[in-house]
Amino acid sequence: MKDPKLQASVVSDLVLLSCVGLRPVLVHGGGPEINRWLKQLNIEPLFHDGLRVTDAETMEIVSMVLVGKVNKDLVNLMNKAGGTAVGLSGMDGRLLMARPNPNSAQLGFVGDVDRVDPTMLHPLINNGHIPVIASVAADEAGQSYNINADTVAGELAAALGAEKLILLTDVAGILEYRDDPNSLVKETDIAGVKKLIAEKKVAGGMIPKVNCCVRAIEQGVSTASIIDGRVQHSLLHEIMSEDGLGTMITA
Asked: Which residue range or ranges hold the Aspartate/glutamate/uridylate kinase domain (predicted)?
C-alpha cells in the first residue's frame, strides 16, 4: 500500500487472475494514509495493543480516507489495468454489521464483525467485477466503526465460501525463528499454528493475522496464506506455482 510500484503489481495480478476465470475480492485498510491525514490535521495517531485508538473525530477521518480516497484510488488503478472494479465499504448493502470491540473503553470506535451478508456481492462477482471493500462498517444504530482489514477479509471469505484467503503483509510469512528469514514455515495446519503460538514463535502483529486465518478455515475456507506483499507478483506466485511464496495454513 505504501509503494506505488508494488501497489500496481498487486492490482495487475488481481486483474490477470480475474481475466483467467478466478473471482477475487479485495479487502483493504490504509493505515499509512490515515496517519498522513491525521498529521496534516494536527491529530496525533494513538495505538493500543496494535489497534488504532479511534475517537469520534478520528473515526470521521478514517471513513473519509478509507472509503473516499484509498478505496477509490484502488478502483481507479484496477480499471486502468483493464479490470472492472466496484468500490464498497461494509456499510453498502448492509454487507457488514459491526459491534464494539471488547476493549472499546480504551479503543473508542474500533469494531469487530458482528455478521456478514454477502448477498450484494454475488451478482458483482458472477458478472466478472472485482469488489474492492474498505474495512469500515456501522452497527444497528448507524454508528461507524474502524475494523481490522484482516478480520474483515477472513469473515468475508467464510461468508462467500471462498476457496482461498490470502493476507498480504510486510514479512515473508510465519517464521519458526523470528530473527531467521530462512526459517519460513511453508505449510502448517491449525494444530501446528496453535503450537507455534503456544511456543511464542508467533507473536505481536502476526497473532491476529494467524487467528483470522484459523477462524476462516474453521468456517470452511480451504486454505489461508500469509505472504510477503513486498515481493513483486507475490500473489501470482502464491496462486499459480506449486511452491507458493509464504505460509499456507490448512485445516
From this structure: 8-228
